[in-house]
Amino acid sequence: MAAKTRAEKMEETRVKLIAAGRKAFAEKGYASASMDELTATAGLTRGALYHNFGDKLGLLGAVVDEIDSAMAQKAKDAGEAAGGGWNGLMAEGRTYIELALDPEIQRIVLRDGPAFLGDPSQWPSQNRCLQATIKTLNELAKNGAIKPVDIEALARLLNGVALNAALWVGTSEDPQDTLHKAIAAFECLASGVLVKPASE
């Protein structure tokens, strides 16, 4: 069996640290998670964390990016299952909001993420979502399905509604009840851009 390359070892270390960070942040929250404990859990040193992520905040950024990217992928899969287009876009939004019911997502992405990493709309994962939404809206515009409006502005507002709905659900006293209200409002607001009402 061939020895692992330096790049492979570095990636393996990153994966271990992200997994350990994800577990620690989910169980204890970012502020209470100990760097010594999470690096020991991964069988690594604090130096490995500094080398790969700079500090604990850098690790949180990597963990949030991993989880938020997975959320976006699940939303994309739901959109494709719904047939793409407008129905797909709405399915993506609904799915992203529904994922806010997951306790790990609530704690890491929707509570600690904004508290320690700042405005979620500036996260790399959210920017990737924005580009995907712009692509879908451009296709809908070419087909005359939506009203003439600036596509980037529309994409930013639609994504912002879904993100803020997820933040509301994830930090609500009654997430399940809030979910239904949030999705209904998201769909109501989004439908205003259609040239004609979406078919059932």
Automatic annotation (TrEMBL):
InterPro entries: Homeodomain-like_sf (IPR009057), HTH-type_TetR-like_transc_reg (IPR050109), HTH_TetR (IPR001647), Rv0078-like_C (IPR049484). The keyword RNA-binding does not apply. It comes from the Bacteria. Residues 11-71 form the HTH tetR-type domain. Keywords: DNA-binding. GO terms for molecular function: DNA-binding transcription factor activity; transcription cis-regulatory region binding. Residues 34-53 bind DNA. The keyword DNA-binding applies. This is TetR family transcriptional regulator.
